[in-house]
Amino acid sequence: MSVLARARGRAHEDDHDAEPWAGPKRHYDLVKEFTVALIVVTFLTLILAALFSSPDDKQLTIGEWAKGAPNDFVITAVAELDGTSGSASYGAPYTHDTSAAQKVGPIAPQNWPGVTLPIDSAQDFVVRPLQDAASTPALQAALATWTGATADQRQTWSSAYDDALTNAPDNDPTKVAAGDYGPVPVMLTQLLSLAESGGLDGALLAQGRFYQTDYTKPLLFMADGTYLEDLARAQHLGGDQWGMMNETGNYPGQAWLWLYTFWYQVKPFSTSGNADALVWSLMALLTAIFVFVPFIPGLRSIPKLVPVYRLIWRNYYREVEAPSSGQPAA
Questions:
Q1: How is 104-120 classified by DSSP, letter by letter?
Q2: What 8-state DSSP symbol labels residue 320?
Q3: Closest residue by Cα to residue 72 from 192, 161, 184
Q4: 162-177 pLDDT per residue, tens
């Protein structure tokens, strides 16, 4: 076909597209439809929010933790000192311990970004807040002893006190057996008092900026203990209770997370120490498959082979296809 013929063909198609619509028409008031839809959706939103909204629990603070579970607070604080807490041994993005990262086979994606939120659990959660609030001679002497000791000596003191506190009845600091714990008991007693007064919340929020909105440190500290987890499980928010799936109470929450949280409930993910990395990798694979559906032979043909579209557009096929086949339209 010559270039001139193709140009004439395109011009004929353009003329055909420009012809007035000769099919059926009906009146449609866009403003009316929008107004009705807005009123209906607003009404349903208000009614359903009143019936099914989740309780608005007040913010949990470290002060409430220290008052409600002082023994758990102290045993968590000593774990921060001896480096055995979750934050101290988590790896990236908090610490430089590359061996702690979750892996997919030999690959450790957790280490790729590096340490972007550096956390020194002993210094950030215990020592620095006490230094900022050191108002008694006993605490000042204890901090001087701690900072003047070698790293090995500090580790020996805190580990010994951690073991003794673990073996004490109810993990009660007042029932710890006598031993060489250095300044650790004094430091933790003062830290508990600071927390109960509400001062530790402010100390961990202080970032040197005008707006103190970074709750990373308070959340990490509370998450290292069992108090926060116990409250979450009481509200059916534990990981094995579809935690991210539920709001507090009995109402379903973020339904769009169900596929992600589902994998944490089944083996091998539910029993693996690398569950986060494995689930993340699986979801990345499923997302890639979804994105590339139009390019995957066989999979991209499923909508055509399973003609659900004909049911959805049944009016179209009755009105358009039936006359072309010589049959009267239904």
A1: BTTB-GGGTT--SS---
A2: I
A3: 192
A4: 999 999 998 898 899 9
Concatenated DSSP letters of 162-230: HHHHHHSGGG-GGGPPP---TTHHHHHHHHHHHHHTTHHHHHHH--SSSS----HHHHHHHHHSSHHHH
Q: Is the dihedral of CA 31, 33, 35, 41 positive or negative?
A: negative
pLDDT reading at 235 higher than 50: yes
DSSP lists the bridge partners of residue 189 as none
Say if residue 30 is exposed, middle or buried (CB neighbours under 10 Å; 0-12, 13-18, 19+).
exposed
Q: Using a CB cutoff of 8 Å and minimum separation of 24, what contacts does 204-213 make?
A: 204/62, 204/124, 204/125, 204/129, 206/132
Q: Which is it for the CA torsion 142, 118, 214, 211, positive or negative?
A: positive
Q: How many helices (H) and strands (E) does the chain have?
A: 18, 0
- Least confident range from 5-19, 20-34, 121-135, 163-177: namely 5-19
- Distance (Å, whole) CA 282 – CA 104: 10
Tokens 């055909």, residue located: 16
Residue-by-residue DSSP string for 266-316: STTGGG-TTHHHHHHHHHHHHHHHHHTGGGSTTGGGHHHHS-HHHHHTHHH
Average pLDDT over residues 170-190: 92
- Beta-carbon contacts of 62 under 8 Å, excluding residues fewer than 6 positions away, are 73, 195, 200, 201, 204, 218, 221, 222
